[in-house]
Amino acid sequence: MTTSPTGTLALVGSGEFLPAIEPLDRLLLERLSAPARVVVLPTASAPDGPGVPERWAKMGVEHFSRLNAAVEPIMLLTRADAESEAMAEQIAAANFVYFSGGKPQYLVDVLRDTPCWRAIVGVFAAGGVVAGCSAGAMAMADRMVDFPRLWRTIPALGLASGIAVIPHFDEFPGVFTNLGRLASGQTRVVGVPGSTGLIGSDLGWTAQGRSPITVFTSKGKKTYAPGEQVPLAD
User: Fold this and answer.
1) Has residue 151 got a pLDDT over 80?
2) How are beta strands 213-217 and 220-224 bridged, if at all?
3) What pTM does this model have?
4) Contact assessment for residue 48 and residue 140, using Cβ atoms and an 8 Å cutoff
5) Best exposed site among 3, 106, 126, 171 by fewest CB in 10 Å?
6) Cα separations (Å) of 134 from 4, 10, 122, 196?
7) pLDDT tens, position by position, 185-200
8) List of residues 6+ apart from 125 with CB closer than 8 A
């Protein structure tokens, strides 16, 4: 994790806002020490075209409303949006930030070194939850696989140090058989299936949700069932 973390980080494989993910999101809501104030950011889907971020935002609001949480969308879609102090203040007022999927590199490029990113880090540091699904999970990690160049990783936003996340891990098993070569002494590669999350706090990491999580290191790979601790530090 980052230095002196106090919040909860959730790196989810896929399936945001669908019924199967509800138990995981209930668990995350229970981590909060105050009534939930959720913001949904469909930022990563902006390159997919008009109407797509709006659809994800609507799904997120409906999902968290079903879980009896106060929720609003923040349509942070461009670098100019991320530089907005007004949007940063909206994010800072929340205690649960949720990134849906899309294009991970776009998400990183939009957020890095902006007031909105600093606000997100502040939510985490204050004991809140920061969750990313699919592209959102990739971007929150230290490094990410440079799709479609599967032979290398590139810097991500670094909220979780020392790991790279492969989402949708249950959907493409044959593609990811050689991920061990991307792992090193500094980086562990974590395969996260759908409706499943790698959940981190200052107490360590656990697998939660529907399926096991797979961790690749330079020495091999190991799987961790839901509820198990996932040792990611040396």
Assistant:
1) no
2) antiparallel
3) 0.93
4) no
5) 3
6) 25, 11, 22, 11
7) 678 899 999 999 999 9
8) 4, 5, 6, 7
